[in-house]
Amino acid sequence: MPEHDLSAQESAAIGIICAIPDEIAQFGDAFQKEKSTSFGGFDFAEGLLEGKRCILVEAGMGKVNAAVVATILAQNFNCRSLLFSGVAGGLDPALGVGDVVIGKHLIQHDYGIINNEVTESYHPGHLPIFMPSERFGYHLDGALHTRIEQALKGFVLPELSAEASGGTARTPTLQFGTILTGDQFVNCTATRNRLHNELGGQAVEMEGAAVAQVAERFGVDWLVVRSLSDLAGEESGIDFIKFLHETAAGAAIVLRRLITVL
Ligand code: SAH
């Protein structure tokens, strides 16, 4: 993050982006809305969350929507950090529906090259054909990572119902991980396995790494928090609908806790 006047930095707002109504609804009354402005058909709601000045916006799904909204937050609202709170498909067999992943490494898995029907992901903007080795994906700021770890000491997520956890009620896990972003809803076990094995992803979604790319361009912090609504296999469409309401809460609960260190 570039050096700014500290007081100006503190007074600048934090941008919070969600893709779908169920994600934004999780902030409920905790977000005290003061006013809203419209740009490009998006509604930017300004107000307070946990005492911090925030701008909350529903971007719709996909990387382009996320990038447009992130750009407006950075350019028009001078936001000092860009956050994403929402749901994702789980890729790591160790994780279940309801678990929460904080993005430590964000990758746009659908940017790259296709050779002989095999997809290879590259860093966004890299010229395809020459293997880009020096840079791959977006890494969470080191100082922010440390502050997040401190803020989460002793923190426990609310218990998940037996239905959502697929057996007995349990406390969801919370971890840093690799989040993959692409313009597809992954509803395919073979793709889920490939993405996990080749890119080491814990979760897959459709917006996060686009927000990171814009944030990096504008020199502001970014943070992506995702709770797992499904496991990205053939059942993911059904799980998504069944568990969305319950699982969408996790990301917002974690983000509300973390906003104090942003
Ligand atoms: N099929 C759903 C709509 C897709 S949800 C329906 O019936 O309503 C896709 C949204 O949730 C995106 O914003 C994405 O970021 C996230 N998401 C959740 N699970 C996902 C998965 N398995 N693959 C990709 N994105 C997922």
Topology of this structure?
Layout: H1 6-11, E1 14-18, H2 21-25, E2 31-39, E3 42-49, E4 52-58, H3 63-75, E5 81-90, E6 100-108, E7 112-115, E8 118-121, E9 138-139, H4 142-151, H5 162-165, E10 174-181, H6 189-199, E11 203-205, H7 208-218, E12 221-230, H8 236-258
Parallel strand pairs: 1-4, 1-5, 5-12, 6-10, 10-11
Antiparallel strand pairs: 2-3, 3-4, 5-11, 6-9, 6-12, 7-8
The structure holds S-adenosyl-L-homocysteine.
S-adenosyl-L-homocysteine binds at residues 19-20, 61, 86-89, 185-186, 204-207, 229-230, 232, 236-237, 240-241.
In short:
The chain has one domain (3-261): 3-Layer(aba) Sandwich (Rossmann fold).
Would you kindly provide a written description of the structure presented here, covering whatever features stand out?
By secondary structure, this protein is an alpha/beta fold. It has one domain (about 5-260): 3-Layer(aba) Sandwich (Rossmann fold), CATH 3.40.50.1580. Helices cover about 30% and strands about 30% of the residues. It has 8 helices and 12 strands. It has helices at about 5-10, 20-25, 65-75, 140-150, 160-165, 190-200, 210-220, 235-260, and strands spanning about 15-20, 30-40, 40-50, 50-60, 80-90, 100-110, 110-115, 120, 140, 175-180, 205, 220-230. Strands 5-11-10-6-12 form a 5-stranded mixed β-barrel, surrounded by 4 helices. A two-stranded antiparallel sheet has the order 7-8. Helix 3 (about 65-75) runs parallel beside helix 7. The longest helix is centred in the C-terminal third of the chain and has 23 residues, at about 235-260. The two termini are about 10 Å apart. S-adenosyl-L-homocysteine binds near residues 185, 186, 237 and 240.
